[in-house]
């Protein structure tokens, strides 16, 4: 939780830095102003509950972390609304995932390529666990699912990676 005045100031900076981006992501998914606002509020509520885990505000990891959370909240809202008539595109990659450059080792480039092709529910939990360093219980709290669901997604995601990388 946001307890100290320093954390409150940091949280406010985080909010002001990312609220528009998160609203944009939510609105594109939900196509409803009020639902998008609700998704943004829920995202910051979940982040506030685990605020000690947030490092730097101005970094791609924080940005990606917030986008993953809002995407999952938006998908949950779409499912609850039941007025959504199209299919949820779980294959669509999250914008802002770290790309590769000529200095990236070939093996890491292969892993990144495979991750980009994976369904979002596996890709996101793998990223949160392996790159951002969150435990299954923490990821479950952020995404609003059970820790067992996250453990299963981590296991299945790792198996997909192994299979696709041929190891």
TrEMBL record:
Residues 110-161 form the RNA polymerase sigma factor 70 region 4 type domain. Residues 14-82 form the RNA polymerase sigma-70 region domain. The keyword Transcription regulation applies. Keywords: Sigma factor, Transcription, Transcription regulation. InterPro entries: RNA_pol_sigma-70-like (IPR039425), RNA_pol_sigma-70_dom (IPR014284), RNA_pol_sigma70_r2 (IPR007627), RNA_pol_sigma70_r4_t2 (IPR013249), RNA_pol_sigma_r2 (IPR013325), RNA_pol_sigma_r3/r4-like (IPR013324), WH-like_DNA-bd_sf (IPR036388). Transmembrane segments: none annotated. GO terms for molecular function: DNA binding; sigma factor activity. One of its GO terms (biological process) is DNA-templated transcription initiation. It comes from the Bacteria. PANTHER family: RNA POLYMERASE ECF-TYPE SIGMA FACTO, RNA POLYMERASE SIGMA FACTOR SIGV. Belongs to the sigma-70 factor family. ECF subfamily. NCBIfam families: sigma70-ECF. This is Sigma-70 family RNA polymerase sigma factor.
């Amino acid at each position: 939780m946001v307890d100290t005045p320093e954390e409150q100031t940091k949280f406010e900076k985080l909010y002001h830095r990312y609220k528009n981006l998160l609203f944009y992501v939510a609105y594109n998914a939900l196509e409803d102003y009020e639902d998008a606002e609700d998704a943004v509020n829920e995202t910051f509520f979940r982040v506030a509950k685990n605020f000690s885990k947030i490092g730097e505000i101005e970094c791609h990891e924080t940005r990606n972390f917030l986008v993953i959370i809002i995407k999952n909240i938006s998908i949950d809202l779409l499912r609850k609304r039941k007025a959504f008539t199209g299919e949820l595109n779980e294959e669509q990659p999250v914008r802002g995932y770290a790309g590769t450059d000529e200095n990236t080792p070939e093996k890491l480039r292969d892993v990144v390529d495979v991750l980009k092709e994976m369904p979002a529910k596996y890709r996101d939990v793998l990223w949160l666990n392996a790159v951002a360093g969150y435990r299954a219980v923490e990821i479950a709290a952020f995404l609003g699912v059970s820790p067992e669901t996250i453990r299963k997604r981590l296991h299945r995601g790792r198996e997909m990676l192994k299979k696709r990388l041929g190891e």
